[in-house]
Each structure stands twice: as structure tokens, then as C-alpha cells.
Amino acid sequence: MAISFGNFYNTGDRVQLGGIKGDVIDIGTLRTTMMEIGQWVDADLYIGRIVKVANSFVFKEAVFNYSRDFPFLWDEISVPAKYGCDYRLSRTIFKKVLTDLTGDYSTQAKNSWTELIHQYRVDPTELDPRVFLVANDNRMEFTLRYIVDYKKRRVTKDLLFTRILEEIESTNGRVALASATFHLVEAPELKITLVESAKGDRA
């Protein structure tokens, strides 16, 4: 009754319940059955394991629902760039790639967010793709933030990185990816001076 009338989740929702994350495939009287995702797979993809979780966990722990009211997630990728490359061109390229590949999700998310504002006390927020730049000791770090469908995180990352690499190759070196750099410091020269004592011994 708590699950049915408490609006926790329905069959087909993606949830995290009792520490298990997956898609709800059946709701029984005592247990909820889920197709598990994650764990040893480095993404929100099915691993082939079906899990039954006690319904009592809705009273013990927070229930995370990824798909009910707002079926989108914010995600980010980091792109390291070398010092000396054209950072303005880099930002332009990354913003264009984000807009081309995730712009439709942003448009859809705006409609869902408008409904959330009417349903809950949430404030308007930035839903368009954004590019942030941080300069550290070794390189420039671009963070690409975007909205994505909760079931398409990994596919979208693959498309983004593929397109970014293609765009970087077409710049003829004006934009270049950076890798970890190490500066080896030479050990100082050690000098030993021998001093003769009055007896002719060396110390």
C-alpha cells in the first residue's frame, strides 16, 4: 500500500532501492524485482542479474527514482588541452559539439522542468549545454556539462568523445589534447673534500 499510494515507483521506473540500482520489472506484495545495472559494468547498463529487494526498504532508506518526474540527468566529461593551443577555438568547438548532440535533450528537459516548478518548490535552472575552463599547473581542463536521457549516458559520452576527437584533428594543431607531464629534477652534485691531519692521516 505504501508503494502504491506513496508514489515511490512503478514498473518500468529506474530506481535505487536498498543499495541496488536497476529497472523495476515487477512489484510484489513483499518484494520488488529489478533488472540490475552498474556494479562491475562501468556505466548504467544491464549486467544480466535479476534482484529481489524487500519492499520494507522504502521505510528504511532513501528511494532514488531516475525516471518519474524528471527523466533526465546532468552529466559531465573532462577534456584536457595543452597550454599554447587556441583555448577560444577549443571552447567554440566543444560548445558546438554539445549543442549538436545534446541540444534536443535540453529542449525536452526544459518542458519537464517547467512541470517540476509547478509541482514542487524548485527554482529555474540552467539546462543548456555549458563549457567551463580551469587552468592548472600542467594543462587547461575543459569541463563539458550537459543534460542527457537517464538511459543514454554511456552512448552519449561515446558520441561526444568521438565527435570531439574528429573536430580536434581538423584544427591542424590549433587545438591539442594534453597528457600527464612529469618534470625530472637532476640530483645535486655531491662533493667530498679530504683533509690531511698533522700525522698525515686523511679525515
The overall average pLDDT, rounded, is 87
Rg over CA atoms, rounded to whole Å, is 27 Å
CATH class of the largest domain: Alpha Beta
Series of secondary-structure elements, N-terminal to C-terminal: HEEEEHEEHEEH
What structural category characterises the helix and strand content? Answer: alpha+beta
**Overall tally of domains:** 2
Provide the low-confidence segments as ranges.
none
For the biggest β-sheet, the strand order reads 4-3-2-1-5
Briefly note the CATH topology name of the largest domain: Alpha-Beta Plaits
What percent of residues adopt helix (DSSP H or I)? Answer: 25-40%
As a percent range, the share of strand residues is 25-35%
Number of helical regions:
4
Distance between the termini: 91 Å
Label the CATH architecture of the largest domain. Answer: 2-Layer Sandwich
Describe the sheet with the most strands.
Answer: 5 strands, antiparallel
The beta-strand count equals 8
The general outline is: extended
Question: What would you say about this model in short?
Answer:
This protein is α+β, with helices and mostly antiparallel strands and 203 residues long. 29% of the residues lie in helices and 28% in strands. The strands form 2 sheets. It has a 5-stranded antiparallel sheet, with no helix packed on it. A 3-stranded antiparallel sheet has the order 6-8-7.
